[in-house]
């Protein structure tokens, strides 16, 4: 039997090593990109960094421990229990980070004009601390007694020295995994995030339709178009998390409610690989869906891995700022129009903030009227530079 399982186990271990490498590399680049690029240092990316740190821990800590467990290591009961609880803590932190991101995007669309005042960096940092605190409480609950120690002692499968074959199901109670972890702290946040993103998409499309009916220009829609694009990217991250973790939780439900049901080992391996692989896919989503991350990744790769001389990323203005500086007068001389700088271009498009007729007439002689002179177009919100 063990010889028949050896190829499958070897394949599983090999895939775990590959996932661990890309998980650590990709998420280190996420943290690195945020560190060296000022335009990525807003509240949303604060939560993304928290999620990346959890994924780094999965690749550097959890996967090596999972490989160790897969070979049937004999350990003390509480040592094995601590390994299992570490996985639970990191899983819960990822879920809560995704929930914080969803709430942050909801507030950005719901209250765009007062978002900066309500969601400060200090409050975002506090939210990250709360998420990790709750994750430790939920994940370490089995260490407080909700585990299989009593059951193993009752059926005589555990000696006085408490040495066991370290496997997740041997130490973690399925009652805890299903009723407390899955039904209490995994499924409700996922459903809540589904509702939040549905509401976000509804509000954005409502605003886009309203703006489209109010004007023939497309520029007032820039804010909500940017928000829609980023919301789709983050919703994709949530979707990938759900399809990666739900199979394993479904297997746990089968284990609890149908103890006699057969669970093929290869299905368990696939479910475990999906959970670990989720830690490696998020940087790929950021790279392909979020331009700021894609540009930062390319610059990091060229400068630090290919040893090419590229401009410093830390003090480099955003692409949008460079374009505005070059085209400020409409003649490409790099001197921005002072009237554009003096306008309150820091809030999302809304009624009552367009320049007056006198201001438009004063600005008119400075350069020919063009599509770029639309007064509404001159008012991109600050949040756009962070997306």
From TrEMBL:
Function: Receptor for adenosine. The activity of this receptor is mediated by G proteins which inhibit adenylyl cyclase.
InterPro entries (alphabetical): Adeno_A1_rcpt, Adenosn_rcpt, GPCR_Rhodpsn, GPCR_Rhodpsn_7TM
Keyword field contains Transmembrane: yes
TM stretches of this protein: 12-34, 46-70, 76-103, 124-146, 182-202, 234-254, 266-288
Gene Ontology cellular-component terms listed: dendrite; plasma membrane; synapse
Protein name from the UniProt record: Adenosine receptor A1
Positions of the UniProt region annotated as Disordered: 318-387
GO MF annotation terms: G protein-coupled adenosine receptor activity
Organism ancestry: Eukaryota, Metazoa, Chordata, Craniata, Vertebrata
Compartments where found: Cell membrane
Membrane topology: Multi-pass membrane protein
PANTHER family from the UniProt entry: ADENOSINE RECEPTOR A1, OLFACTORY RECEPTOR AND ADENOSINE RECEPTOR
Similarity comment: family membership: Belongs to the G-protein coupled receptor 1 family.
The keyword Nucleus belongs to this UniProt entry's keyword annotation: no
Residues in G-protein coupled receptors family 1 profile domain copies: 26-286
Primary localization class, coarse: membrane
Xref: SUPFAM superfamilies: Family A G protein-coupled receptor-like
Composition bias type Polar residues, residue spans: 340-359
Gene3D superfamilies, per the entry: Rhodopsin 7-helix transmembrane proteins
The entry's keywords: Cell membrane, Disulfide bond, G-protein coupled receptor, Glycoprotein, Lipoprotein, Membrane, Palmitate, Receptor, Transducer, Transmembrane, Transmembrane helix
């Amino acid at each position: 039997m063990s010889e028949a399982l050896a190829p499958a186990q070897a394949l599983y271990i090999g895939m775990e090593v590959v996932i661990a490498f890309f998980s650590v590399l990709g998420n280190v680049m996420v943290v690195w990109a945020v560190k060296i690029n000022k335009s990525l240092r807003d509240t949303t990316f604060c939560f993304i960094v928290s999620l990346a740190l959890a994924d780094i821990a999965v690749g550097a800590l959890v996967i090596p421990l999972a490989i160790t467990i897969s070979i049937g290591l004999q350990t003390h009961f509480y040592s094995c229990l601590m390994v299992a609880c570490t996985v639970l803590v990191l899983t819960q932190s990822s879920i809560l980070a995704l929930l914080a991101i969803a709430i942050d995007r909801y507030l950005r669309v719901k209250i765009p004009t007062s978002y900066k005042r309500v969601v400060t960096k200090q409050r975002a940092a506090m939210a990250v601390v709360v998420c990790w605190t709750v994750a430790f409480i939920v994940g370490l609950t089995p260490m407080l007694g909700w585990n299989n120690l009593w059951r193993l002692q009752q059926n005589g499968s555990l000696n006085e020295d408490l040495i066991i074959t370290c496997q997740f199901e041997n130490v973690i109670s399925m009652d805890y995994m299903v009723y407390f972890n899955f039904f209490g702290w995994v499924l409700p946040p996922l459903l809540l995030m589904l509702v939040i993103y549905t509401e976000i998409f509804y509000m954005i499309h409502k605003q886009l339709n309203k703006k489209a009916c109010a004007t023939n220009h497309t520029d007032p829609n820039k804010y909500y178009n940017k928000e829609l694009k980023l919301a789709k990217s983050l919703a994709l991250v949530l979707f990938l998390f759900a399809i990666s973790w739900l199979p394993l939780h479904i297997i746990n439900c089968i284990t609890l409610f149908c103890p006699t049901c057969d669970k093929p080992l290869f299905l368990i391996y696939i479910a475990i690989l999906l959970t670990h692989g989720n830690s490696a896919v998020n940087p790929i989503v950021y790279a392909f869906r979020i331009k700021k991350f894609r540009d930062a990744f390319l610059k990091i790769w060229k400068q630090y891995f290919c040893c090419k001389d590229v401009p410093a990323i830390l003090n480099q203005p955003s692409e949008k700022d460079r374009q505005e500086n070059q085209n400020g007068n409409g003649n490409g001389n790099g001197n921005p129009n002072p009237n554009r700088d003096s306008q309150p271009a820091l809030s999302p498009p809304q009624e009552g903030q367009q320049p007056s007729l006198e201001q438009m007439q004063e600005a008119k002689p400075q350069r020919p009227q063009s599509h770029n002179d639309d007064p509404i177009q001159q008012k991109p919100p600050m949040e756009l530079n962070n997306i």
